[in-house]
Amino acid sequence: MQIRLTPSLLAWLRCFEATTRCRSFTKAASELCITQGAVSQQVKQLEEFLQRPLLLRTPRALMPTPEGQWLAVVLGESFQAIEGTLGQLRVVQDDRPTTLSCAPSFAMGWLTPRLGDLFRAHPQVGLRVVGEFHALDRERMESEHMAAAIRFDLGDYHDLLATEFLDEWLLPVASPGFLAAHPALRGPQDLRAEDLLHDTSAWHGASTFEEWQWWLQQSGADTPQLGEMAAGHHFNLSQMALGAALAGQGIAMGRAALVLDELAAGRLVMPFGRPVRSRASYYFVTRMAPSPRTTLVQTWIAAEAARFRQQRDALLGLDTA
Q1: What angle, 0 to 180 degrees and rounded to 10, lies between the N-to-C axes of helices 66-89 and 7-22?
Q2: What is the reported pLDDT for 148?
Q3: What is the overall mean pLDDT for the chain?
Q4: Out of 87-91, 240-244, 295-299, 302-306, which region has the weakest mean confidence (pLDDT)?
Q5: Which residues form the HTH lysR-type domain (predicted)?
Q6: CB-based contact 78:108 (threshold 8 Å)
Q7: CATH architecture designation of domain 168-278
Q8: 12 φ, ψ to 5°?
């Protein structure tokens, strides 16, 4: 016999499940926010509908009959399954800021100067930028309520969604004053290891002298031995190495995203004019189902990156089409 779950029958079942779980009409009524008499009446109507007793009413407690216990177990499992599914499907409005973890040098040199446009266009986004470059995985992003991250690396993520939004080009840079003080520096063959400024943490897992070695190799120049490389000055942020270059302390391996404004203003110059495509790129990293606000931020960053790429390619004479 097929029985249709009418609104009345669903209400009877809900009252019966709460009563058997609480072992009391009074406690069930408190949980359901109705009167004790209403709960008792609903259970009685269910028993009349089924034409069998479901509860044994004793002075001390309510005990389900065998049939009542069977129905109570089925109802408990069913309601839990329904509530669990609804919890997963429901879109919860989260008032917390959208936390974006970002590699510090990129945050300071590229992202932060552009954020005003995002806030003016989307004041509701509530973006919170955290500068750090620690390794990412799904568990960490969830536990720290991290909506997204921007990383400069090879994009090798197994349990996260990593989308490349900007490629990067490497180019040695120095201050005009440094070059004026070193007139013998005419080509890569004239580089001295002690004049090199290194970001020794280009990305998580990169070798200590990754960027200088890669540029020298791709430029066809002789690559100094690691021992010779160590004679240079070491920093753990690209921005720090660039700061040293601006101060005339040596030649830094610049990333186009971080040095374009300095090059345009003449505060830094390219002594060799040989940009080399980096092995790493900038990735927008999220969990597999990003929120609408996170997607909005990602779309804005992608558009900003496209505009920047046009400016960069024109200034550096790159053909990346």
Answers
A1: 110
A2: 95
A3: 90
A4: 87-91
A5: 10-65
A6: no
A7: 3-Layer(aba) Sandwich (3.40)
A8: -60, -45
d(C-alpha 26, C-alpha 60), whole Å:
13
Beta pairing partners, 215: none
DSSP-assigned states of every residue in 154-204: ----SSSEEEEEEEEEEEEEB-HHHHHH-TT--SGGG--GGGEEEETTSST
CATH of domain 98-166+281-316: 3.40.190.10
Pairing between β-strand 251-255 and β-strand 161-173 as defined by DSSP bridges: antiparallel
Nearest to 233 by CA among 196, 202, 190: 196
Helix H or strand E segment including 152: strand 148-153
The token duo for 182 is 């070193």
Q: Give which of 296, 206, 287 is closest to 253, Cα–Cα.
A: 206
Q: What is the phi/psi pair of residue 209, to 5°?
A: -115, 35
Round to whole Å and give the CA distance between 42 and 33.
Answer: 14
Q: pTM to 2 decimals?
A: 0.70
If pLDDT is split at 50, 70 and 90, which confidence band does 1 have? low
91: confidence class by pLDDT, cuts 50, 70, 90: low
pLDDT level of residue 224 (50, 70, 90 thresholds) = low
Mean of pLDDT values over 225-237: 79
- The answer to whether 259 touches 242, Cβ cutoff 8 Å, is yes
CATH fold for the domain made of 7-81: Arc Repressor Mutant, subunit A (1.10.10)
Residue 193 φ/ψ, nearest 5 degrees: -55, -35
- Determine contact, residues 100/147, Cβ cutoff 8 Å: yes
Q: What's the CA gap between 178 and 196, in Å, rounded? A: 12
Within this chain, domains 7-81 and 168-278 share the same CATH topology: no
Position 321 scores a pLDDT of 64
Distances (CA, A) of 50 to 25, 46, 53, 71, 98: 20, 6, 8, 11, 53
| Res 94 pLDDT > 90 | no
Q: What was the pLDDT predicted at 274?
A: 87
